[in-house]
Amino acid sequence: MNPRFAFVAAPLLVLAYGVIRILDGLDGSRGPGLAWTTGHLAFLAALALFVPIFWEMRRMANRDALSTVSAVMGTVGVLAASAQFVIDIVVGFLSADHAAMGVLFDRIQAVPGVSLAIYDGGPYLFYLGQLALVVQLAVIGRVKAWTPVLVLFDLVLPIVDRDFIPLGAIFLLVSFISLARGIAPTAEPVAAHAARRAVTHA
């Protein structure tokens, strides 16, 4: 996968999730239904793209110990957040209405360790790892100083109000476009380069 694609597609998928989430709540409740499932699938796809994004950011940061720890932390956060969204989707399928979803969520979160690992703790590693990588890239001059500021806006806005997720995603898109521009072009395979030279000089 072209890493530049991931840097653009991930924020757009988060944007899609945020917009669908708002539309799903227009009737006064969210889920279950098509909007609930579609929005969660969009965010799951975004989370999957964040894994190569984190490791590309580690490469851009020269693969040092700090960037490696941040990438690992972010990846663990992706796994925790993905588990949460998979649970949300399954609960949506199993529930007849929003009230029934609440009952199932309570049962799941009552399982020892689940609340901390999947809801209250684990997913925050995703955000901390992401911010740590961007800050490190800014410190070493690989991205502009304002890039981590935009990423921070993306992380803080949903805490203020989750309806701000689309706005945060736009900030994230702008910052990630800046990051994507810093990705070195993929090196041409040696064999292909040699073959072309042979044809040129024949």
From TrEMBL:
<keyword id="KW-1133">Transmembrane helix</keyword>
<feature type="transmembrane region" description="Helical">
    <location>
        <begin position="66"/>
        <end position="87"/>
    </location>
</feature>
<feature type="transmembrane region" description="Helical">
    <location>
        <begin position="124"/>
        <end position="143"/>
    </location>
</feature>
<keyword id="KW-0472">Membrane</keyword>
<keyword id="KW-0812">Transmembrane</keyword>
<protein>
    <submittedName>
        <fullName>Uncharacterized protein</fullName>
    </submittedName>
</protein>
<feature type="transmembrane region" description="Helical">
    <location>
        <begin position="34"/>
        <end position="54"/>
    </location>
</feature>
<feature type="transmembrane region" description="Helical">
    <location>
        <begin position="164"/>
        <end position="184"/>
    </location>
</feature>
